[in-house]
Design goal:
The chain is α+β, with helices and mostly antiparallel strands. It contains four helices and five strands; from the N terminus they run βββααββαα. The strands form two sheets. It has a three-stranded antiparallel beta sheet. Helix 2 packs across helix 3.
């Protein structure tokens, strides 16, 4: 498959939450089953306890999207990586509205035979600017919200 062309895929992830914000418990799942009711809590997000966090999931998505896209554009340039390791670092910090993610940082180490540093840097920069998750971070976000009212039982 080429890095370009007409292609559309729709993938889903779901999250459920029970309880209060600080004492509650959530579960996150992916359509593929890679995550299946994986727990997340305030403690896993802010204190590093067991479970995942939205920032960890964003980091994994960004690292995998960037690395795959780089592999595709390396191939277009006639190159193939022996090995690439990418870590995405997502910064979460508090602000006047609660929290924000002001920056993401990629750390890439790669072994690519026959690649010179200038070509490598250029293609890595291109991948950072053009991978799907990089574009997502600058995209329109829409919302459909429905409130359901639980049944009340009269005695």
């Amino acid at each position: 498959m080429s890095a370009r062309g007409d292609f559309v895929a729709l993938r889903s992830g779901t999250a459920a939450w029970m309880g209060t914000g600080t004492e509650g418990l959530g579960f996150v799942s992916t359509e593929s089953g890679a995550l299946q009711s994986h727990p997340y809590t305030v403690d896993s997000r802010f204190n590093g306890s067991a479970g995942t966090s939205p920032e960890e999931l964003i980091a994994a998505a960004y690292a995998s999207s960037f690395t795959m896209y780089l592999a595709l554009i390396l191939a277009e340039a006639g190159l193939a990586a022996d090995h690439m390791d990418t870590t995405a670092l997502v910064t979460l910090q508090s602000d006047q509205h609660g929290f924000t993610i002001p920056r993401l940082h990629l750390v890439l180490t790669a072994s690519i035979p026959y690649a010179d540093n200038a070509t490598f840097q250029s293609l890595a920069t291109k991948a950072k600017a053009n991978c799907a998750v990089s574009k997502l971070l600058n995209s329109e976000i829409t919302l459909d919200a429905t409130l359901t009212v639980g049944m009340t039982v009269a005695f």
